[in-house]
Amino acid sequence: MPPFGAVQCVEGPRHTRGTPPNVIETDAKTWLELATGRLLWTDAVESGRVTASGLRADLSHWLPVVRL
Hints:
The protein starts with 22 loop residues before the first strand and ends in a 15-residue tail after the last strand. It has a two-stranded antiparallel ribbon with strand order 1-2. It contains 2 helices and 2 strands; from the N terminus they run βααβ. By secondary structure, it is an alpha+beta fold.
């Protein structure tokens, strides 16, 4: 989905086609806020800014990626 894409960024089951078992969807602004610690994972999910499904779709223990 240009201009953004998706990657598997943590160890887990390999997936090659179709809908993967763990899916997280958000917009670029929300992801940047999560990655920098300006937004908490739980707040983003509860407000609907992030949709996450699957057993391994909770990224809260990986965030923030950087602190500003």
